[in-house]
Amino acid sequence: MRERLKKMKSDKKKSCLVILIFFALLGFCFYKNLESNLKGFYTSRNYHGSVQITGFSWERANAAPDVNYVYTEKINGKEISIPLKKPVQFKHMVMPYFAQLDNPKDKGLISGLVSYSDVDSRPFLPIIEKALELHPERKQMENELQNKIHQASDLKGTSIHLKESISDDLLFGKSVFWFTHYEEQSLEEKRTKLGGWYGFPLKDALANDAIYVQIELPKHTDRFDSLDIDLPEELKGILQQTSLPDGYYSLAIDGERVGKIVEIKKGKVEDWR
Q1: % of the chain at pLDDT higher than 90
Q2: Of the candidates 62, 87, 102, which is a domain's last residue?
Q3: Residue 265's domain spans which residues?
Q4: d(CA 206, CA 248)
Q5: What's the DSSP call for residue 34?
Q6: Do 53 and 67 contact (CB within 8 A), yes or no?
Q7: Beta-carbon contacts of residue 215 (< 8 Å; ≥ 6 apart)
């Protein structure tokens, strides 16, 4: 009887061990397939860096859990790592990446976007932000703009930052066409640095609403005081003394927009919103 009980316990332990090993192997297969799909997704779109899964999260209600990962690429001899997120799809866990199953009409990360409200920008927006941050001409352009904008008395002490427009609710509709067109060109011409975003033409992007000029007010500025600054009139005054590139300009405090977005078009100021 004791021997039988021992044997039953031993068999039970073996069964539990087999089940644990099975689920461990299943989890490992799911993980490797998901990793394969992420790598294939980016590689097929001219992103030739590495992808490493860092974990999972469930931040959005009524949505699938997210896979958190880091895209790493060497730019000018320096490794650049960009944290990204993407919703988990079951089909990406049960089989590795197959190019034939990828959507041939949606080869870009931005292609096919209709409106920002129904788009998950987390797989691509941080890449564009990083490309703008690393742009070799950004600092020079910001400094040139700052020197000109400081000619307006109410704008002295401000700092100038170029910002991408695709994450902006008001400017998305104006910017997405330029981003989509440039992405298509990058794929055709096989630009590979950050999927082609590194070194994109700043002046052309500004003129076509893909980026805008954020005029950051000093930190001590009160939000109500900022309302006294008439940005359209200030920019008109600057244009009487010098030139400013066409594009959108806005005031901000701690990175948050205050007041109007003002457009300069063909060297003239137009109130937009």
Answers
A1: 51
A2: 102
A3: 132-271
A4: 8
A5: H
A6: yes
A7: 149, 155, 158, 159, 160, 231, 249, 250, 251, 252
**pLDDT, tens digit, 9 for 90 and up, residues 105-121:** 556 788 755 444 556 88
CB 52 within 8 A of CB 23: no
pLDDT at position 23, please?
67
* Counted domains in the chain: 2
- Do 87 and 145 fall into the same domain? no
Q: How far is CA 156 from the centre of its chain?
A: 31
- Predicted pLDDT of residue 240: 95
Residue type, 192: T
Place of tokens 């949505």: 63
Q: Concatenated DSSP letters for 141-157?
A: HHHHHHHHHTTSGGGTT
Dump pLDDT digits (tens) for 214-244: 999 988 776 656 667 899 999 999 999 999 9
One-letter amino acid for residue 55 of the chain: G
Got the DSSP string for 175-244? HHHHHHHHHHHHHHHT--GGGGTTT--HHHHHHTTSEEEEEEPPTT--HHHHTT--HHHHHHHHHHHS--
In this prediction the pTM is: 0.86
* Mean pLDDT score of the chain: 86
The dihedral through the CA atoms of 141, 143, 146, 150 has a sign that is negative
Listed in sequence order, the residues at least 6 apart from 32 whose beta carbon sits closer than 8 Å to its beta carbon are 96
